[in-house]
Amino acid sequence: MHSPLPPQMHVFVRDWLSANNILLKSRDGHVLIDSGYVSHAPLTLALLASPRGLADEPLAKLVNTHGHSDHIGGNATVRAKYGCPIAFPAAEAPLIERWDERALWLSWADQTADRFTVDELLQPGSTHVWGDLEWQLFAAPGHDMGALVFYNPEHRILVSGDALWENGYGLIMPPSLDPDALPATRDTLDVIAGLDVRVVIPGHGEPFRDVAAALDRAYRRTAAFEADERRIGRHAAKVILTFNLLHRRRMPVADLPAYVERIGIYRDINALVLRMTPRDLAAMLVDELTRAGVVRVEDGDLVVA
Ligand SMILES: [Zn+2]
């Protein structure tokens, strides 16, 4: 991509376990957006300390797009090193305050993050100057009902978090678990479609410019989800299992039926939407993820392909 971003903006493209880290540099204080997954916090610190990062300069603020483990996992580590305040979407700050492991998809989804406190509430409709750029905040519920996206009108840049990726968006809850998530997802796509965006910096994957094509794919996925709740349930379970495998590295296939019965997100989606035996659910997940080339079975263990 031909220098699509202003020079004070640097994107550390991470993987699917850690969200991208976006650094906005300014003489008024450097700002970091999202901190990655907790087990990758040492790498996050190393990237921040690199010459393309802060080198040995201080960090003035850490900002989060939303409260999922792959975006907030390194918050406590980053704050411990830099002593910076943490700015967080106001709508879900109470979940952080009481550390709601169910609502934040932590133990409920077999994920972890180091606990932290929120210093500044980010409200939709507000404007902030980070990295000498003006950012307008928009509510972006759906994948996460308290999420925000950040829009810079001058350079027409959208920091989309998990509300829009080049191919899809973060998993959403089936209507039986959260009746608001799917309609909110469509509304959020409409909000993004109403912005004049030249480049999207997503929470995962490379920054991309063909916003119309990405929106088209996202709308088509949403229409397919609206037609079939089971499809949302299968998709969510497959995405979470892939994520869990990324941090566990391998899981015995034989343990999977007990695992999907023990971990809340699978148990609840199965009870309310899929209604399969744990054994059939586990077999379906392995089968569909194997055929998609996402996982493979190695010596009786499931591993990420
Ligand atoms: Zn997320």
Descriptive tags:
six-stranded mixed beta sheet, 305 residues, five-stranded mixed beta sheet, single chain, binds zinc ion, Metallo-beta-lactamase, Chain A, 20% strand, 10 helices, alpha/beta
Task: Describe the protein.
This protein folds into two domains: 218 residues, 4-Layer Sandwich (Metallo-beta-lactamase, Chain A), CATH 3.60.15; 76 residues. Helices cover 35% and strands 20% of the residues. It has ten helices and 14 strands. Helix 5 packs antiparallel against helix 6 and helix 7 runs antiparallel to helix 9. The site of zinc ion (ZN) has 7 residues, from loops.
Topology, number of strands: 14
Oligomeric assembly: single chain
Q: How confident overall, as mean pLDDT?
A: 96
- How many angstroms does the end-to-end distance come to? 28 Å
- Proportion of residues in extended strands: 15-25%
Order of H and E elements:
EEEHEHHEHEEEEEHEHHEHHHEE
List each distinct ligand once.
zinc ion
CATH class of the largest domain: Alpha Beta
Secondary structure class reads alpha/beta
- Unreliably modeled segments: none
The biggest beta sheet reads: 6 strands, mixed
User: What's the helical proportion of residues?
Assistant: 25-40%
Which CATH architecture of the largest domain is right?
Answer: 4-Layer Sandwich
Instruction: Determine Rg (CA atoms, Å).
Output: 19 Å
How are the strands ordered across the major sheet? 1-2-3-4-5-6
Molecular shape: globular
CATH homologous superfamily of the largest domain?
Ribonuclease Z/Hydroxyacylglutathione hydrolase-like
- Quickly count the domains: 2
| SS element count, helices | 10
What is the CATH fold-level name of the largest domain? Metallo-beta-lactamase, Chain A
